[in-house]
Amino acid sequence: MIPEIGHFALILALSLAICQGVLPLIGAHQGDSSLMAVARPAANGQFVFVAIAFGCLAWSFVQSDFSVLYVANHSQLALPTVYKISAVWGAHEGSLLLWVLLLAGWTVLVGRYSSELPEAFSARVVAVLGLLSCGFLLFTLLTSNPFERLIPAPADGADLNPLLQDPGLAIHPPLLYVGYVGFSVAFAFAIAAMISGNLDQKWARWTRPWTTYAWLFLTMGIALGSWWAYYELGWGGWWFWDPVENASFMPWLAGTALIHSLAVTEKRGLFKSWTLLLAITAFSLSLLGTFLVRSGILISVHAFAVDPERGLFILAFLGIVIGGALALYAWRAPGLDSEAGFHATSRETFLLLNNVLLIIATALILGGTLAPLLVELFTGAKISVGPPYFEIAFAIPMLPLVLLMGVGMHSAWRSQDMGPLMRRLKVPAIIALVLGIAIPIVIYGSGSVLLVIGVIAAVWIMAVSMIQPVRSWRRAPGTPAITRSVLGMSIAHFGVGIFVLGVAIVSAFSVEADRSLVAGDQVSVAGYEFELRSLQNVQGPNYRAIEGEVDIRKNGEFVSQLRPQKRTYLVQQSPMTEAGIDAGWNRDLFVALGDPLGNNAWSVRIQYKPLIRLIWLGAFIMALGGMVAASDRRYRLTAKAKQPATELSGEPA
Amino acid sequence: MKPRQQRMLAVGLAAAGIAIATALALRAFEENMMFFVDISEVTEGNYPEDRNFRVGGLVVEGSVRREAGELEVNFDLTDLNSQLTVAYNGILPDLFREGQGIIAHGRLDDDGVFVADEVLAKHDENYMPPEVADSLAKHSAAQDAVIEAEEATQ
After folding, report:
1. Which of A63-72, A440-449, A545-554 has the lowest mean pLDDT?
2. B18 closest CB neighbour out of A349, A360, A515
């Protein structure tokens, strides 16, 4: 009964999404207020019904209703309750439902906080979101119904993929999806602006906070995914350039470009059509990411749905959305750009360079990701593109980007005289040069050219990012304080510096050793002595495991004890490596059990990872910066001004 | 700056940047792409020399051998038509087992042994890497055809 209610709620949600997508558009075109007023209640209703459907699926999981096919395939009785809930989005059907739920949630928020916008404009925004929702609901109902029954029901389920039974993966997909789906708001704003043919600086001011929020959630989602891959996939890498990772990273890069381009559009009214194109691109890449993951067309551990019918549907949907948006763009964008100018050295120029470099990075990653597909299509040869390609392709545009970032963020709009700016940036530049050479050599004892450049870049960004906050902190009484926008930018850029430092040091000084050990063996890695004291059998709720007990000492002094496990999950009989990690701010020590090698020996992977935590810390600082920037007063003022208006327009005819 | 100059600057910068980036990226791409080669092709001598490539197939039952207590491992890989011995010095992935479809990266040494620097098995019991599935299908079909032809001539 519960699953049928969920299924029925989805159908009702689709009906409301159609109303939400069609009627306000007609209303906005004809200037009919009553039709436009359908937008918000339809969106709210759609959200309620999708939430009911989502709740029904979650309930089926908690109740272990194995007569629901999706539940039977992805849960089992002994699964801990928290993973029964996260199993809802543990595979294709449920994660799609989560996508629809989040889309409906964003739409409700947009409806709630857009009453200050012109009536026709906000109606169009909500309608575009409704049309997107129609697509996803149709996809769910026609190809991926999570409520499909399995009669007769099995006595127990097939269990959730053991890799997904982890707190990191319980929250990684929702965060990532909030970000992915959030770009649909920027997309809807762009489409609405193109339909109305009116794009002014106010438009950019409305769009900016939404885009920043989407971006910061995507940032956190990607960082969490990377962290999860590090400790759960078992082998200590933090980024694999896997197609699915690239699928989440490309919208992030395009979204980052969009945030910066929106800044120019808001402050100076420039780059309008470029900003529109980026808004379309960021969302299209989110959709493409979904297509890449869900169609199973690219080889990846994530591609759990190898189903051409679904792939075809998404491809068609992708074609309609991207094709439609680009056609609209070709038709309307040429009339939008203004004729204001700027000097060759100005913040506009640096932001333009930022955009060019970010888009080059996106294009190179897209190329590498799609190359196997294209080569096979045209020549029949099967190729794969190794991570070194992506590392080089990414570093090419990123190096100039991080170096220019420091200059750009201190340049004035319109025109910047470079002389005074260079004098102002002399101190951070010297600090960066000195520390960039000193840190690798003094602390880690060596340094290649590439490493030194990386550390210089990292220190440089951190130093220049502190100029404005420090100056504001030491300012004379009466002078204006730093705005949240500038503070947020400084924090986010500081986070980039932390991230770059982490990447540079980890890449240069990680130590990795695969050894064959028997209980009692000792091995020395990166100045730490690792002793495998014992191996014993342990029992978990739905797995059994061999657990190693590893003592770590440095110069004879006890540092930590790790208990890496080799688990076998009982239902799927699948083995899983659970690494033992001693985390510290300056280094991680990592031990993972491999296989029994005979004669009581086990293969053991031991790793030393200096400053690896900075990679995720840097990403979270970036997200924090986004949060601070999006809470700037000028956005809040508009939010406050519209609160009473919401009460009025909340009750439409 | 006037709008026209502005646009020319933008276009110029973009073009120069893209040209440099493309040149460097293409080089990196050329160096880091790996061809997937069927095992039958490898045993016939058709494989890229002096660079890494990928092979994939089923791990032959009973073929995994190692000196007790040593990391170094050897196993045979088959596409149901030919066999190739793979040598690997490292930790095999969790889902590596006999009968399972796997992929290895590496190159062929002078003795015809494929020295792998990476062995991949997917995190799904029933999942067969698509290249391996194709390769198996191709060669088992070819074998069937040979058998049929032989039967027909008898």
Report:
1. A440-449
2. A360
Q: Which of B2, B28, B131 sits opposite A389 (nearest CB)?
A: B28
* Contact A514/B at CB under 8 A: yes
Which residue in chain B is spatially nearest to A571 when comparing CA positions?
Answer: B125
Range of the domain at A70: 1-160
Q: Domain count for chain B, please give it.
A: 2
- In this prediction the ipTM stands at 0.81
Residues 6+ apart with CB under 8 A from A282: A183, A186, A187, A251, A254, A255, A257, A258
Facing B1 at nearest CB: one of A299, A341, A383: A341
Question: Is the CB of B28 less than 8 angstroms away from the CB of A360?
Answer: no
Does the residue A485 lie in any domain? no
On whether both A124 and A261 belong to a single domain, the answer is no
Residue of A nearest to B31 (CA): A389
Count up the domains in chain A and report the number.
3
A158 touches chain B (CB under 8 A): no
Nearest to B134 by CA among B54, B60, B63: B54
3-state secondary structure of A342: coil
Write the DSSP symbol of residue A87. G
Nearest chain A CA: its distance from B32 CA (Å):
5
pTM score, whole prediction: 0.90
| A121 and A191 belong to one structural domain | no
Same domain as B114, residue B136: yes
List pLDDT tens digits, range A524-556. 999 999 999 999 999 988 899 999 999 999 999
- Asked whether the beta carbons of A263 and A347 are under 8 A apart, the reply is no
